[in-house]
Protein backbone atom coordinates (compact mmCIF):
# COMPACT_ATOMS: atom_id res chain seq x y z
CA UNK A 1 0.00 0.00 0.00
CA UNK A 2 1.20 3.49 -0.83
CA UNK A 3 0.13 6.62 1.03
CA UNK A 4 0.66 10.03 -0.56
CA UNK A 5 0.44 13.24 1.49
CA UNK A 6 0.38 16.82 0.30
CA UNK A 7 -1.37 20.16 0.53
CA UNK A 8 -4.81 19.61 -0.96
CA UNK A 9 -4.71 22.51 -3.44
CA UNK A 10 -1.57 21.01 -5.01
CA UNK A 11 -2.25 17.31 -4.52
CA UNK A 12 -5.90 17.01 -5.58
CA UNK A 13 -5.46 18.10 -9.22
CA UNK A 14 -2.55 15.65 -9.65
CA UNK A 15 -3.94 12.50 -7.97
CA UNK A 16 -4.69 10.44 -11.08
CA UNK A 17 -1.49 11.44 -12.86
CA UNK A 18 0.63 10.87 -9.76
CA UNK A 19 -1.00 7.48 -9.18
CA UNK A 20 -0.22 6.46 -12.77
CA UNK A 21 3.41 7.53 -12.46
CA UNK A 22 3.92 5.84 -9.09
CA UNK A 23 2.34 2.62 -10.29
CA UNK A 24 4.37 2.71 -13.50
CA UNK A 25 7.54 2.91 -11.40
CA UNK A 26 6.35 0.03 -9.23
CA UNK A 27 5.77 -2.03 -12.37
CA UNK A 28 9.03 -1.21 -14.11
CA UNK A 29 11.31 -1.56 -11.08
CA UNK A 30 9.53 -4.14 -8.91
CA UNK A 31 7.56 -6.03 -11.54
CA UNK A 32 4.20 -5.29 -9.94
CA UNK A 33 1.20 -6.33 -12.06
CA UNK A 34 -1.19 -3.77 -13.53
CA UNK A 35 -3.99 -4.68 -11.12
CA UNK A 36 -1.84 -4.36 -7.99
CA UNK A 37 -2.44 -0.64 -7.35
CA UNK A 38 -3.24 0.32 -3.75
CA UNK A 39 -2.83 4.08 -3.35
CA UNK A 40 -4.28 6.24 -0.59
CA UNK A 41 -4.18 10.01 -1.02
CA UNK A 42 -4.24 12.25 2.04
CA UNK A 43 -4.84 15.84 0.94
CA UNK A 44 -4.20 18.18 3.87
CA UNK A 45 -4.98 21.75 4.71
CA UNK A 46 -1.84 23.89 4.49
CA UNK A 47 -1.96 24.55 8.24
CA UNK A 48 -1.86 20.78 8.88
CA UNK A 49 1.18 20.03 6.71
CA UNK A 50 4.52 21.34 7.92
CA UNK A 51 7.43 20.70 5.61
CA UNK A 52 11.18 21.38 5.64
CA UNK A 53 12.70 24.69 4.60
CA UNK A 54 13.73 25.08 0.99
CA UNK A 55 10.62 23.29 -0.24
CA UNK A 56 7.54 24.69 -1.97
CA UNK A 57 3.86 24.09 -1.24
CA UNK A 58 4.04 21.31 -3.88
CA UNK A 59 6.03 19.24 -1.34
CA UNK A 60 4.71 15.67 -1.51
CA UNK A 61 5.42 12.72 0.78
CA UNK A 62 5.17 9.17 -0.56
CA UNK A 63 5.20 6.29 1.93
CA UNK A 64 5.60 2.87 0.33
CA UNK A 65 4.58 -0.04 2.55
CA UNK A 66 5.69 -3.45 1.31
CA UNK A 67 6.74 -6.91 2.40
CA UNK A 68 10.42 -7.42 3.11
CA UNK A 69 12.51 -8.99 0.41
CA UNK A 70 13.62 -6.36 -2.10
CA UNK A 71 17.35 -5.71 -2.21
CA UNK A 72 18.81 -2.34 -1.25
CA UNK A 73 19.78 -1.77 -4.89
CA UNK A 74 16.19 -2.44 -6.01
CA UNK A 75 14.80 -0.06 -3.40
CA UNK A 76 17.27 2.65 -4.41
CA UNK A 77 16.37 2.13 -8.07
CA UNK A 78 12.69 2.58 -7.20
CA UNK A 79 13.34 5.81 -5.30
CA UNK A 80 15.46 7.24 -8.11
CA UNK A 81 12.89 6.24 -10.74
CA UNK A 82 10.17 7.97 -8.71
CA UNK A 83 12.20 11.20 -8.53
CA UNK A 84 12.87 11.11 -12.27
CA UNK A 85 9.36 10.24 -13.43
CA UNK A 86 7.54 12.52 -11.00
CA UNK A 87 9.63 15.44 -12.18
CA UNK A 88 9.33 14.68 -15.91
CA UNK A 89 5.69 13.52 -15.99
CA UNK A 90 4.03 15.43 -13.13
CA UNK A 91 6.28 18.49 -12.82
CA UNK A 92 7.19 18.19 -9.14
CA UNK A 93 10.90 18.80 -8.59
CA UNK A 94 12.86 16.14 -6.66
CA UNK A 95 13.51 18.65 -3.86
CA UNK A 96 9.72 18.64 -3.28
CA UNK A 97 9.37 14.85 -3.13
CA UNK A 98 10.11 12.69 -0.11
CA UNK A 99 9.97 8.91 -0.45
CA UNK A 100 10.02 6.48 2.45
CA UNK A 101 9.98 2.70 2.03
CA UNK A 102 8.61 0.85 5.02
CA UNK A 103 9.16 -2.89 4.97
CA UNK A 104 7.47 -5.42 7.20
CA UNK A 105 7.96 -9.19 7.38
CA UNK A 106 5.41 -11.14 5.34
CA UNK A 107 3.72 -12.48 8.47
CA UNK A 108 2.82 -8.88 9.41
CA UNK A 109 0.67 -8.46 6.28
CA UNK A 110 -2.94 -9.59 6.15
CA UNK A 111 -4.96 -9.73 2.93
CA UNK A 112 -7.54 -12.03 1.32
CA UNK A 113 -8.11 -13.77 4.65
CA UNK A 114 -4.53 -14.87 5.24
CA UNK A 115 -1.15 -13.54 6.21
CA UNK A 116 1.52 -12.67 3.66
CA UNK A 117 3.69 -15.65 4.56
CA UNK A 118 0.78 -18.01 3.84
CA UNK A 119 -0.07 -16.74 0.36
CA UNK A 120 1.21 -18.85 -2.54
CA UNK A 121 -0.37 -17.18 -5.57
CA UNK A 122 1.22 -13.72 -5.78
CA UNK A 123 1.56 -12.54 -9.38
CA UNK A 124 4.92 -10.92 -8.60
CA UNK A 125 8.12 -11.72 -6.76
CA UNK A 126 9.09 -10.08 -3.50
CA UNK A 127 12.73 -11.20 -3.89
CA UNK A 128 13.92 -8.67 -6.51
Automatic annotation (TrEMBL):
Its keywords, alphabetically, are: Pyruvate
One Pfam family in the UniProt entry:
Tautomerase_2
Matching SUPFAM superfamilies? Tautomerase/MIF (SSF55331)
What name is this protein filed under? Phenylpyruvate tautomerase PptA (4-oxalocrotonate tautomerase family)
Amino acid sequence: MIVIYGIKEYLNPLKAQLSDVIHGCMQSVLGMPEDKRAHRFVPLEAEDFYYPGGRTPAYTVIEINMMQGRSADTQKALIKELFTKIESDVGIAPVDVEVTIKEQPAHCWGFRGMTGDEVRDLKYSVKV
